Amino acid sequence: MSSKRRKPPRRDVRLHEEVTAEEGFVWTRKDLLGLDELSPQEILHILDTAESFKEVSTRSIKKVPALRGKVVGLLFFEDSTRTRMSFELAASRMSADTILFTSKGSSVSKGETTLDTVKNIEAMGVDVFVIRHSQSGAPHLLAKQVGASIINAGDGAHEHPTQALLDIFTIRQRLGRLAGVKVAIVGDIAHSRVARSNILGLRKLGADVTVVGPPTLVPNAITAMGCRVSHSLDDILDEMDVINMLRIQFERFGGGLFPSLREYSKLYGLGAQRLSRCKKDVLIMHPGPINRGVELTSEVADGPNSCILQQVTNGLAIRMAVLYLVSPVRE
């Protein structure tokens, strides 16, 4: 039996950018491990495929048979709510069966290795694994050891490719372009897999990226990824087309990286006063969950410039697209 990768379903609208999708492009990757290894064409191919699936969520019957007969394993070795639910719903809308694994109370907590766990679950007939893990590189290691497709749902502080893809998709949807768009990513850059994936994807598609945060949370080496560094949010506000506010991740590091939440919010939080100094049509983004009153005030998070809920909606289309593309067609 042979397998091949899929062309995207036909779509009616094509957005023209400096980097444009190739007609007839065929996806050939077994896995989606990160944006670092993807070409601009591959990223655009995912975005275009997601455009095809977006309207499924508007139907009265929100289901298509694209993955009927496939089994998707959701393996979350690290806590997650939004990403897990989004992948689970995406698989369901494409008529795939799902099985959910969490490490708490599992064989992993009893001493079994992650690889043995995945191989045992694969033996049950799983076609695609969606994996979140606290160790950077875990999905890459598993992809070399198992025959099923692997989708990285976040690995340590390394990458979170589908979050970045939905962010990029939302920017393109709202602004109609990516080349030349000025994007600020604000907050804990050092520990953020979302920031890393966003920088990689946005730069490959021609956007200008500035990372903003206190020196303790913005490593100097980040400039090697082609972005600018600013330690003052106020200095760059009026330049930006998009401001992506990252969550302060209390679970990822101890204290001492900034004096207090109050001080952080004063210097790097986005409220109505700072928003008034931005471009009138600036997009405000956040990967969630929001620490209200820290990264964003409620007035901004729920205001007309916010596209946070649109990000969540678009995440479903992106994850449907990724599941579709990595699932081989058997002949």
What do these coordinates show?
- With 331 residues, the chain is an alpha/beta fold.
- The protein has eleven helices and eleven strands.
- The strands form three sheets. Strands 8-7-6-9-10 form a five-stranded parallel beta sheet.
- The protein is globular.
- The protein starts with a strand and ends with a strand.
How large is the radius of gyration?
A: 20 Å
Low-confidence segments? 8-17
Content-based structural category = alpha/beta
Q: What's the helix-strand series? A: EHEHEHEHEHEHEEHEHHEHHE
Quote the average pLDDT. Answer: 90
Helix content: 25-40%
- The helix tally amounts to 11
| Largest sheet geometry | 5 strands, parallel
In brief, what are we looking at here?
Helices cover 33% and strands 15% of the residues.
Topology:
Blueprint lengths: L2 E2 L35 H14 L17 E6 L5 H12 L3 E6 L11 H9 L5 E6 L4 H8 L3 E7 L5 H15 L6 E5 L6 H12 L3 E5 L15 E3 L2 H4 L5 E4 L15 H8 L3 H4 L7 E3 L12 H4 L6 H19 L2 E2 L1
Parallel strand pairs: 2-3, 2-4, 4-5, 6-7, 6-9, 7-8, 9-10
Antiparallel strand pairs: 1-11
Helix pairs in contact: 1-5, 1-11, 2-11, 5-6, 5-11
Task: Provide key terms for this protein.
331 residues, 15% strand, 4-stranded parallel β-sheet, 11 helices, alpha/beta, 5-stranded parallel β-sheet, single chain, 33% helix
